[in-house]
Amino acid sequence: MANDISQYRAGRPPGARNRFGKQALADLEDAWLQHGRRALDIIAIEDPSRFVAAALGLLPKDVLVKIEHSEDGPTMSSAERHKLIQMLDDWDEFQSWRQAKTIEHTPRHGP
Description:
Blueprint: H1 16-46, H2 48-57, H3 78-98
Helix pairs in contact: 1-2
């Protein structure tokens, strides 16, 4: 009897990971619909540093800005350009702050 390597095949069956991921997201959605706002309120009070970390984790890490030049002249007014530059400066400042050292917080319970 020859060794059939296919009988020792390790790992998940094809598609199992996708099924698991879809079910996990469906379960998460159900839990969110039932507890979402209340859970946010509780974590914001009991562990604000974790709340802020979770909120910031949802924000994009990079911003892509595409500016096209028109031969007919500027498509952006001076005020619009100024506003865009300010937004980019604010984003850069936010990214620097986001990468700053995290301050640990121990929640206080009671008055």
